[in-house]
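Example 3.2
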Amino acid sequence: MPFRNIAVGRYEEVTHPGTLKCALAEFISTLIFVFAGEGSVVAYAKLTSGAALTPSGLVGVAICHGLALFVAVAISANISGGHVNPAVTFGLFVGGNITLFKGIVYWIAQLVGAAVACLLLKAVTDGMTTSPHALSSGEPVWGALVLEIVITFGLVYTVYATAVDPRSKGNVGILAPLAIGLIVAANILFAGAFDGGSMNPARSFGPALVALDFTDHWVYWVGPLLGGLIAGAVYEVLILPSDEPHHEPLASEY
């Protein structure tokens, strides 16, 4: 039966020490990821005096995001599961790998981590503004929405295949963070020319909040969340063996 494992959980989870440790891990990992990822964009703007992103610049930004996410997932995997992304958390909730209450705590930690990262960037760069994700000239909103759905599907599907599927057990330590970082870098290399290639509402929220620019911001929530939902549903219903128990990937005890 589809979505048979979705669970709301108990309110006590919100204040449980295990959940709070997971939240701290998500906060720190998201801060590290967004600080490095958005930092690469800010650094490019400084080095080029605000010039438009070039192909070589896009490669640099994509590599920086991929490496930063690789590290961010690796350092939190054994504590919180290494989500670092509200869309990943939502996709795992759909598959029954995290409860609603715990997922909400993760979301808060991720969003706060992204916001703090961008505030720190503004402080250490002498007030340079962050660059919210934005549609390129001529890119239709519906095109960006579909693009975010597709690339986030690829990301969350990768998370399921390398970290959630019981058949991947024993390979999670390096393979999962590396694969997750690589798929994000690859997606940015393509989607970056059209809408920035977010795949992560927290990654989009931090720069938008600090810059106070929420133009088309809904695209970077709706697209990734739908992509995460579809990936979770596909893997839960069609890919994951029905006789295998579900588990929260590398999560804490509660």
